[in-house]
Specification:
Two copies of one chain form a homodimer.
Chain A: E1 4-12, E2 18-25, E3 31-38, E4 42-47, E5 53-61, E6 66-70, E7 73-75, H1 82-94, E8 96-108, E9 117-128, E10 143-148, H2 149-158, H3 164-177
Parallel strand pairs in A: 4-9
Antiparallel strand pairs in A: 1-2, 2-3, 4-7, 5-6, 5-10, 8-9
Helix pairs in contact in A: 2-3
Chain lengths: ~180, ~180
């Protein structure tokens, strides 16, 4: 380890992430402050229907101040299995259950400042819930989009979709569905 | 817009990101607090040598407490052109200049809580700088890895690489290099 941690402070405890501030010392003796966004991690699903459509959600994202289109996703509850979290968020946001979830990847979204780890799945065997979606108050702006897979891939590659997990999830799902292994 | 912003506070001003705390009100009258990590954005390059190797950097990432392998990347300076930032970070971290940068994608890394936008490029026509890398004090742990493109792709798909921009960048670079358009 090429530095010493001199202090560690939980500066803010938030709804989605906590802010940690650390003071460190390099071997040269120089000191520096590092801030870290501590995130519980998340899970997301690329849900593909039997007739080859992807279910996406369009919602207002506060940090961006605009609507964007994403695959269904959400934070892990403490101790929650990532696959169950993915299934829960899929059901809440789209109103669909997946009979089969296959792991696509586990990724760090922005490891330079944040410990968020995101678990990506392909969801197949989709079945609509009679009761529909159960969205939280902050998700009332959310709408469901059903897009043919080829069109969704085009949108991912052409810049129409800009969310990293959505673009990566669609590329990985295409590889798996076209018979390639990951 | 389905909410009213009641307050907006810069809670912490950091080296990499600021913490913004907002209080909002939904149409129901319910109030909520939202924290946002405000990030200047970044740029990253998939550098591919004339003989088909990818240049990657391995470094300690404080938020994870461990070393991971990534494509060269860094934050935008205020007002900086993303392509120039990508070229600057490539030179600083690897000691190579790219004669050609081609845009791969512009992505939001984690739009649920952070406004970070990341610009991804493919770098070709790599030329080593006589003076080598110029790494900052916090980057002294960084080492350069030169990996055949097919092996890097395997590492991206098998879970060996876990950084989102690295996996996505390699998949997009492969598409472009194999003659497909994006």
């Amino acid at each position: 380890m090429e530095f010493k941690r001199l202090s560690h402070e939980v500066f803010y405890t938030g709804r989605v992430f906590d802010l940690i501030v650390e003071r460190i010392e390099y071997p040269s003796g120089a000191q520096a402050v590092r801030e870290i966004a501590r995130h519980p991690g998340g899970a997301a699903t690329v849900p593909v229907t039997d007739d080859g459509h992807v279910l996406l959600v369009r919602q207002m994202r506060f940090p961006l101040g605009r609507y964007i289109t994403e695959i269904p996703a959400g934070k892990l509850s403490p101790g929650e299995d990532p696959a169950l979290a993915a299934a829960r968020e899929l059901a809440e946001e789209t109103g669909y259950d997946a009979r089969r979830l296959e792991k696509l990847a586990t990724i760090y979204t922005s490891p330079g400042f944040c410990d968020e780890q995101l678990h990506l799945y392909l969801g197949r065997g989709l079945v609509e819930r009679p009761e529909g979606p159960r969205r939280e108050e902050g998700e009332q702006s959310m709408t469901l989009e059903s897009v043919p897979l080829a069109e969704a891939l085009h949108n991912a590659l052409s810049g129409t979709y800009q969310d990293a997990k959505t673009i990566l999830g669609l590329l990985l799902a295409e590889r798996l569905l076209s018979g390639g292994s990951l």
